[in-house]
Amino acid sequence: MPTDLVWSLIDDAWNSEISLEDVEATQARLNAMPAHVRHLYAATWIDCEVGNGGFWQLFSNSAGVLAPEAVDGFTALGMPQTAAIVAEAINLLGSPFPRDRNVRDQRLSDLEDTCFDGLEDQFYTMIETEAGGSEEAFRTYAGRFAK
Question: Does pTM surpass 0.90?
């Protein structure tokens, strides 16, 4: 879970009134964010969603729209193995990545229920250990941008 330092950087984005269901507005908002805020924001969402219910939950929820940005985010946070696991999960949904939730739901319906199991196990291990674990990686990265 993000620390107070991380929240101080992403709070405005996290509490924005723009719905993640609105793909175009989300993309515009992401593009307007400083890169470090985008990295922390997307990685936080993916950490929370996968941690709460796995990749299936992530991709079936509106936060799934942020998965490609989370790959960049985890890489920037010094968690390249975690980023690679998220990228592999993304690839199971086909190319190009479906930003639209309805399209993701359709692609999920074409997959086996257990298709993410091994990736989830890897994700849970990496999120706890890589770069000292996510809390340490997030805090260290955010510390570079704190005022």
Answer: yes
